[in-house]
């Protein structure tokens, strides 16, 4: 659903389990949220901090390079 989220996760070499642990949720819940896009605001903020990018880039539906 969010290609830039997948790209950043790969660039940092983080597994779904790594990111899920960072967010304090299970791996399967993280995978479901990536597929459905149903992240809560706190999770979005944490992901932006983790990958050091802004929200518009990370949660874009098209592939972009980070600013």
How much is the average pLDDT?
93
**Major sheet summary line:** none
Helix content: 55-70%
Secondary structural class: mainly alpha
Shape: globular
- Radius of gyration, rounded? 11 Å
Can you tell me about this structure?
With 67 residues, the chain is mainly α. The protein has helices spanning 3-11, 16-23, 27-36, 41-51, 55-58. α2 packs across α3. It is globular, with a radius of gyration of 11 Å.
Secondary-structure blueprint of this entry?
Elements: H1 3-11, H2 16-23, H3 27-36, H4 41-51, H5 55-58
Question: How would you briefly describe this protein structure?
Answer:
It contains 5 helices and no strands. By secondary structure, the protein is mainly α.
Using brief descriptors, characterize the structure shown.
5 helices; globular; mainly alpha
């Amino acid at each position: 659903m969010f290609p830039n989220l997948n790209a950043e996760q790969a660039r940092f070499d983080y597994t779904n389990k790594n990111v899920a642990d960072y967010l304090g949720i299970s791996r399967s819940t993280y995978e479901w949220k990536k597929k459905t896009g149903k992240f809560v605001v706190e999770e979005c903020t944490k992901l932006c901090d983790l990958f050091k990018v802004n929200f518009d880039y990370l949660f874009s539906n098209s592939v972009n390079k980070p600013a």
